[in-house]
Design a protein that fits this description.
- The chain is α+β, with helices and mostly antiparallel strands.
- Among the domains are: about 100 residues, Rossmann fold; about 70 residues, Dna Ligase, domain 1.
- It is built from 15 helices and 21 strands.
- It has an 8-stranded antiparallel β-sheet, sandwiched between helices. It has a 5-stranded parallel β-sheet with strand order 3-2-1-4-5. A 4-stranded antiparallel β-sheet has the order 6-9-7-8, with helices on both faces.
- Helix 4 runs antiparallel to helix 5 and helix 5 packs across helix 6.
Length: about 475
Amino acid sequence: MPTALEVYGPVAPSLQTQRPLKFLFVGDWALSLDLAWQVLREGHQPKIFIKDADCKDIGDNLVPKSESWESDVAWADVVVFEDTGYGKAQDRLRREGKPVVGGSEVGDRLEDDRDFGQQTLKDLGIKTLEFRDFTDFQEARGWIQANPGRYVLKPNGPAADFKGLAYAAKRRDSTDLLEMMSNLASKWPKNLKPTFQLQKFAQGVEVAIGAFFNGTDWVLPLIMNFEHKKFLTGNLGPNTGEMGTSILWDYSRENRLFQATLEKVAPKLRESNYHGYVDINCIVNENGAWPLEFTCRFGYPLTQITVDGMRNPVGTFLEQLARGTATTFRVGGRFSLGVVVAVPPFPFASKPEYDRYSKDLPLFGVTKERIDHVRLAEVKWDTEHGRFLTANESGYTLIVTGTGDTMEETKRRTYGVLGERTTGGVFLPNMMYRTDIGDRWTHDEPLLREWGWFPKETVAGSARVPQ
């Protein structure tokens, strides 16, 4: 049977490389599969290293695998790290002269150590919300009782990967959070010491400002992004990593949110020779921007959405970013959007339920015309029947994406990829997705405009770089 590349073909001729490079993608859970698949279609030679044994089948028969990333570093022209946890290795490789995209040891600390991240913001002159770190739930309960107010509990360090351990108080006096603490304590991973942060709650619009950093400066466009973390339409259900994201592209360094937050972090990143994506998630209101947390790595599904919007070859951009020569890239519209499509047991973990409902499910309706708007997550290639199948056991399967000049147009294009909206569209049995990604724009945009945070490029002109 033909390979997936033979079935769907390479990318558009304008994106095909004349100078094939070797890319090594490194991570625990194959989060970078879609990037590896994209550079393969552009004519490059990728390998992907997957550390976690349960994720080893992700990308089977799609992208060549690396059994030992350390052994393959010499082979690679560019090494791409998909997540935090590899900062020291990235710093070492850069000192040795290897072009690397991903993060750094400082980047790992900014994201994973909330206390360090918040203190760094304060040291750089950026306003922050009141916060306090704890390692004991009883001590935290006593502190809230002595300092009444509305707080958000966020796990620190490795526990931050467990989304069910975070809780935002719904009541002004945090009495619901006080009751939840015993529940959270009982669910805390037994192999991890409790370490968490209480952060003052702020009312406003939640928006992140992000960009790629080339080692010395920011790469335009800026990426203003709006996350949708709850599982169900209407912002209901448990927290997930993310169920979808909308992006507003902005080529202006006059962006007020950028100037108030991200721009001020450049010296810290320059000092650590950081080459990769960074964003700061904020609460914005009439009184200012209040940074909540860093992302110092590729975001998901933000990365897949970025690839959809980008009109430059991804492989070329990654090489330029690693070498410090990237300064900008073109996009196809003012907005981009992505919707996560999952199957059971997502967002929970249960191998028996996955095997019962979702193992080796085929993806229907993926055609040459649609493949560029179907971004891969946990899938593999069935060589016998020539089709994509679900992989791993979490149920996080794919992201459908779209780009346009208005949010309404962008949403219509994105959801139009799915089979339930378009005859012959993409479909897989038992699929689950939110139907309201992008809808919050109608609420958030007037507030951002009223408070003076709104970039002018959304009102007049285009987000595209002038030709």
